[in-house]
Design goal:
Largest interface: A-B, 36 and 35 residues
Strand order of the largest sheet of chain B: 1-2
Largest sheet of chain A: 2 strands, antiparallel
Strand content of chain A: under 5%
Structural class of chain A: mainly alpha
Shape of chain A: globular
Distance between the termini of chain A: 25 Å
Helix content of chain A: over 70%
Radius of gyration of chain A: 21 Å
Strand order of the largest sheet of chain A: 1-2
Oligomer: heterodimer
Chain lengths: 470, 513
């Protein structure tokens, strides 16, 4: 029972593997994959309240990990539903693609439960390698091989980040003689002033920063976002970040507040992420690249929450990344629908979308305004609470600069909104949206608004789960 | 919590705020355009009628907040849903609920495309605007303050004129950028006030002067852009010119008031010492706005632009009245906020009516219509007279009180009244540009275009304008009921200011009690 969601995913992988042996039609593969994702979601919901440890206490199942598992399953489910239809993945390898997708999700679910360095490493690699393969599986619609380039870049940079992380972990092991996170926290406590401990933690964080696309390990983002198919990008942009935040909170929890050097380091990373992401996004034409850069800046905001080192700060970070998940999915839902034949979407493709598809354009606008941090959407509430927590801790400069970033960011989000609503369409034909798409669009909009106006329930649940860690 | 005074079991404020929102949600499911118009009109009218209830329950003898509602919203950060009304906000609330039905009426035939979406935007605007005026929790205030940008952006960006994209983006970015530091200021106030966002608790505290100055700057940027004060006004003409009539009316009548309301509600009570310290700069910026707005309006050939620049001048008077910090000035400023809302709103409606007929906002193409649209011209003439403060109209009372306040201010400081004298040319300029416009529209010259095909305004349009005219004369001839509503709150505000500041800047006898 403790391992049920993971087992479901393994089973799903097996089903897809057998499916890949034959020549199934692409619509059947998708139906199967979507059903399997729904089953996984149900399984993780069933296990929400379960608690326990597995594998010689390397694997911990608690409310904290289970919340993340539900979110991961939910996000995967949403992506699978809206990727149905004209997919950007090669026909031949469709079932393999979904096989790897489920393996990656399995890795992420294991990651959020891992409390031991090796388990963390293995789960992280399981999720990463599956995605490395998913990226070049794109249908080469533009015939320029960007997907291959993206795949190679993702792999090479990813392996490098992993190398750094392993190096850091080896230092941690050397300093503490254990790989269990709780024991490490205990034994590392007196060593915070030691340069070795600082290097160890900083390098270990590198691996997770890579997943979260945080400065200075962000450089893969634009090319991979651009090269991967729309569905794959939606996945990369949302789901691994959830797991990365989950594990980051576990690791940051090792650092005591007086680890001032690490705190300063993280603060610089957060600010650099925000500025780099937002300023670069200003000049982007490709929507996925734009969202990639915006993702970098959002990663910076999440880090602000982690910097507070208290349960409410961690809870807001979880809240923020969850909101980001839904806002991002809302945007990618529209991108996938607007994209023709799985091609990339440039900002101009949204011209006059409001006339062609009112519901989709509303979804896009709510998603974008949410990302931009305009109330009453979840992005605002999240940012506000993050800044509040950081200000309480006395990070005044950080808060002011972060607030300025919101103003910079709104410009590029607005430039999309402007084209969507305020211009006449290039083609007159209305876009047809299927029933699942419409349902999903309404679901995402409602979630973005309701989470934004009523954050209390989520926050209290998240902080309750975080308290278990501390 | 002793500032609170609960005197109503019925949550009237919540009803006022959420009724338009419910109307907007209902509209989502309505396909028929005429039904959309009717529902929007019905909703705004019901809100307008319900808001009259506020008048009957309102206690003018106290400066406490009334009709208070209080519910916990986000417990983790002690954020509450707190609403209340006092003398400073009550007229602004009534102004908002009064204006909205006429915005719907003015869009009746003007808006032909996407009627449903337009009405939804209008109703959401009403919710947000009312919320801003009644919110007593700073987060609630900020959420509504920012949320308002989205429907307003849509109103300008979708249904606007040729340069709508430029205008809407400029409006959005300018206002948003201005509010960013306000957010930081709010967070600072939260941390020094025992983790509370309750606005009345933040007032009249002894914050260090340096913090007050920073806070005042944050307030000033947010509110001065919204007012807009010279030199932050450049978004206004663009937005006004491109917005549809209803958008211009909302902008002029309500949105601009939020800036001045912000000064009264936040800047004065929360940062009194910084206010006194920086007052001279704000006063002279107000004078600059008055003169600049007047001269620029004189040079306009576009009617909407002319009125937009005249707004810069009028709002300069309002900020002048607020920052002279005496009872005549502040009361005059609040009254002038209402006057400006009524008069300028009506003027924009008038311009919209011409635009609907000639599809041009150019003064040149609207010359010499007096002969063909006599009823229209009558209305326009009265509103123009009101706009430059002709005795007997509403703006005269307001401007008179503000100028009286400005003279008192100089006397109390034993100075020669430079300030008041500097503002006087503004009043003359207002007469010049309004009369110039009026002269051209009524008579024009020998080169008038053929206007004989124009039809005079219809019953719907007369119904739209008549209530505005009614208030122009009511406030102009008998302002006492309005002043009574605001008197106690303003008096208390300035009393606090005196006690707190320890210097007699205010509370000298009032000429108009």
């Amino acid at each position: 029972m403790l391992f049920l969601p993971e087992l479901t995913l393994l089973g799903a992988g097996l089903v897809l593997f057998f499916l890949s042996l034959g020549q199934p039609s692409s619509s059947r593969v998708k139906t199967v994959a979507t059903t399997l994702a729904a089953i996984t979601l149900i399984a993780s919901l069933l296990c929400l309240k379960s608690e326990g440890t597995l594998f010689y206490s390397a694997y911990k199942v608690d409310l904290y990990s289970q919340i993340f598992k539900v979110l991961i399953a939910l996000g995967t489910c949403v992506i699978l539903i809206f990727s149905a239809g004209d997919s950007g993945v090669k026909q031949k390898t469709q079932s393999e693609y979904y096989l790897f997708l489920f393996m990656s999700v399995l890795g992420l679910m294991m990651l959020v439960s891992s409390v031991e360095l090796l388990a963390i490493f293995i789960s992280l690699e399981l999720s990463s390698f599956a995605v490395y393969i998913m990226v070049p599986m794109r249908k080469d619609a533009q015939n320029n091989g960007t997907h291959i380039e993206a795949g190679i870049k993702y792999l090479l940079f990813g392996v490098m980040a992993t190398g750094l992380m392993l190096f850091g972990m080896s230092y941690i092991y050397g300093l503490t003689g254990t790989t269990q996170l709780p024991l490490i926290a205990e034994r590392l406590a007196p060593l915070y002033t030691q340069p070795a401990a600082i290097i160890a933690i900083a390098l270990t964080l590198a691996g997770f920063f890579y997943k979260l696309a945080l400065f200075p390990l962000h450089f893969w983002v634009p090319d991979v976002y651009e090269g991967a198919s729309n569905e794959t990008t939606a996945f990369i942009a949302a789901i691994p970040k959830l797991a990365a935040v989950a594990i980051l909170i576990r690791v940051v929890n090792l650092i005591s507040v007086d680890g001032q050097v690490i705190v300063n380091l993280l603060m610089v990373c957060a600010l650099a992420s925000m500025f780099y992401g937002n300023l670069s996004a200003l000049v982007q034409k490709d929507v996925k690249r734009l969202l990639g850069f915006s993702g970098i800046s959002h990663a910076g905001f999440v880090l602000v929450g982690l910097l507070t080192f208290d349960s409410i700060g961690f809870a807001t970070a979880i809240y923020y990344i969850t909101g980001y998940l839904f806002m991002n999915l809302a945007c990618f839902l529209v991108i996938c629908r607007v994209s023709e034949n799985g091609k990339n979407v440039v900002i101009e493709d949204f011209t006059g979308l409001y006339n062609r598809a009112p519901l989709l354009s509303l979804t896009l606008v709510i998603g974008l305004f949410g990302l931009g941090g305009i109330p009453p959407f979840v992005g605002f509430t999240g940012k506000f609470m993050l800044l509040l927590g950081a200000f309480n801790k006395g990070y005044y400069i950080l808060v002011i600069l972060a607030a300025f970033n919101t103003a910079i960011a709104i410009y590029y989000y607005l430039s999309i909104v402007r084209l969507t609503f305020c211009t006449d369409p290039l083609t007159k034909d209305k876009m047809t949206t299927s029933l699942p798409t419409r349902g999903l669009a309404i679901f995402l909009m409602v979630v973005i608004v309701v989470m934004g106006i009523f954050p209390s329930t989520f926050i209290s649940m998240a902080s309750q789960s975080v308290k278990l860690l501390m | 919590m002793d500032q609170l005074l609960i005197n109503s079991g019925f949550p009237i404020l919540s009803v006022l705020i959420f009724l338009p929102l419910i109307g907007a949600i209902v509209l989502l499911f309505i396909k028929s355009e005429s039904l959309c118009r009717n529902i929007a009109l019905a909703t705004t009218s019901v809100v307008g009628l319900l808001s009259i209830r506020l008048l009957f329950g309102f206690d003018t003898t106290t400066a406490k907040f009334q009709f208070v509602e209080h519910k916990s919203w986000i417990e983790a950060f002690n954020i509450n849903y707190t609403l209340g009304v006092d003398g400073i906000s009550i007229l602004l609330i009534l102004l908002t609920t009064f204006i909205m039905p006429f915005c719907v009426l003015a869009s009746w035939s003007y808006i032909k495309t996407r009627v449903q979406a337009f009405m939804i935007c209008l109703l959401i605007m009403e919710t947000a605007m009312l919320g801003v005026f009644v919110a007593l929790d700073f987060v609630l205030f900020y959420v509504l303050w920012e949320a308002m940008l989205i429907p307003m952006y849509m109103l300008i960006g979708i249904w606007g004129g040729p340069r709508k994209i430029y205008a809407s983006i400029k409006f959005f970015l300018y206002t948003l950028a201005g509010s960013i530091l306000l957010l930081v200021g709010i967070i600072w106030l939260y941390t020094v006030n025992d983790h509370s966002f309750f606005i009345p608790d933040m007032m009249w505290k002894d914050y260090a002067l340096s913090s007050q100055v920073y806070l005042f700057i944050a307030f000033f940027l947010a509110f001065a852009i919204k007012v807009p004060m010279f030199p932050f006004h450049t978004w206004l003409p663009a937005a006004h010119v491109e917005a549809p009539t209803a958008g211009s009316v909302i902008l002029a009548s309500v949105l601009l008031k939020m800036g001045t309301y912000g000064f009264l509600r936040f800047a004065l009570p929360i940062t009194p010492e910084a206010t006194v310290l920086l007052m001279p700069y704000v006063l002279w910026l107000s004078i600059a706005g008055i003169i600049y707005g007047g001269f620029t309006a004189l040079a306009q050939s576009d009617m909407k632009k002319l009125i937009a620049y005249s707004s810069v001048g009028h709002m300069g008077f309002v900020t002048l009245g607020i920052f002279v910090l005496n009872i005549d000035g502040v009361k005059g400023a609040i009254l002038q906020m209402i006057n400006h809302g009524i008069t300028t709103g009506a003027l924009f409606l008038c311009v919209g009516m011409i635009y609907e007929r000639t599809h041009s906002r150019e003064l040149r193409s609207a010359t010499g219509i007096g002969k063909y649209m006599p009823i229209y011209i009558t209305f326009l003439a009265f509103f123009s007279l009101s706009s430059f403060g002709f005795p007997g109209t509403n703006s005269f009372v307001g401007e008179f009180m503000i100028l009286a306040g400005a003279f008192e201010f100089s006397t109390s400081q034993n100075n020669f009244p430079y300030l008041a004298l500097a503002a006087i040319p503004g009043a003359v300029l207002a007469a010049a540009y309004m009369l110039r416009m009026l002269q051209k529209i009524i008579w024009g010259g020998t080169d008038n275009p053929d206007q004989s095909w124009l039809s005079d305004i219809n019953t719907r349009e007369i119904v739209t304008l008549a209530p505005f005219l009614f208030f122009v004369f009511w406030i102009g001839l008998g302002p006492q009921p309005f002043l009574d509503l605001i008197h106690t709150s303003v008096y208390e505000l300035l009393q606090h200011f005196d006690i707190h500041h320890g210097q007699a800047v205010a509370a000298a006898g009032s000429i108009l009690h």
